[in-house]
Specification:
Layout lengths: L7 H11 L14 H11 L6 E5 L5 H9 L2 E5 L3 H9 L5 E4 L6 H9 L4 E4 L5 H13 L4 E4 L6 H16 L4 E6 L20 E6 L2
Parallel strand pairs: 1-2, 1-4, 2-3, 4-5
Antiparallel strand pairs: 5-7, 6-7
Helix pairs in contact: 1-2, 1-3, 6-7
Length: 205
């Protein structure tokens, strides 16, 4: 099997699409353009792998993932959101409508394998912990989280995850990206970021 790497051509195509997308100030349920650019920077030159997206919304970030990934499964509880993502015409993206916090999705994650996950679903501690556990059960080694700086519960769950890795002596890297601490969103549930918009936790061999 030949593994494809993310190339400069992929970056160029993704940036063309990025220029057509709304930023966080215009569309509160998307990630910022800076988040998306940093994601491209993170993945440039790496092997394209299997991604799962928890919380696809209208597919703005999914469009960028399609250039990073070999394949993407985008999950959203809303059938209409899934239809919108499918209508974007990304050949390597499939959508599924699930309750992310039910037994059916837990079993789905136990039966499938993914290399990386973008987690942007319910923004509280309890639900993010479930997201993390489900992704661990599916073999995910690269965790990309949105809204780390915007919601204390999200931040608590991720910080606890990182502390657990340290306690268990699991080698890992942590990268912060997206909008900076103190950044202001005028069109969201919060106005001032208390930490970075996004955080990446990568488990190392």
């Amino acid at each position: 099997m030949i593994t494809k790497k993310m190339s400069l051509e992929d970056v160029s195509k993704a940036i063309e699409i990025l220029n057509t997308l709304p930023d966080k100030q215009q569309w509160k349920t998307t990630t910022s353009k800076l988040f998306k650019v940093n994601l491209l920077q993170l993945m440039h030159g790496r092997d394209k792998t299997r991604w799962i997206e928890l919380g696809g919304a209208q597919g703005h970030t999914t469009l960028i993932l399609s250039h990073i990934a070999e394949s993407v499964i985008s999950i959203d509880f809303d059938d209409e959101n899934c239809k919108k993502i499918e209508e974007l015409g990304m050949s390597n993206v499939k959508t599924e409508s699930f309750d992310l916090y039910g037994d059916v999705f837990k079993e789905y994650m136990n039966e499938n394998k993914f290399d990386a996950a973008l987690i942007d679903a319910v923004h509280d501690e309890e639900h993010v912990k479930i997201d993390i556990e489900n992704c661990k059960n599916a073999g995910v080694s690269l965790f990309v989280f949105d809204d780390y700086g915007g919601f204390p519960g999200v931040r608590s769950a991720i910080d606890e995850f990182i502390e657990g890795l340290k306690k268990d002596n699991v080698k890992h890297n942590v990268t912060h990206f997206g909008m900076y601490p103190g950044g202001v969103y005028n069109n969201t549930h919060y106005r001032v970021l208390q930490n970075w918009e996004g955080i990446v936790v990568e488990l190392l061999d």
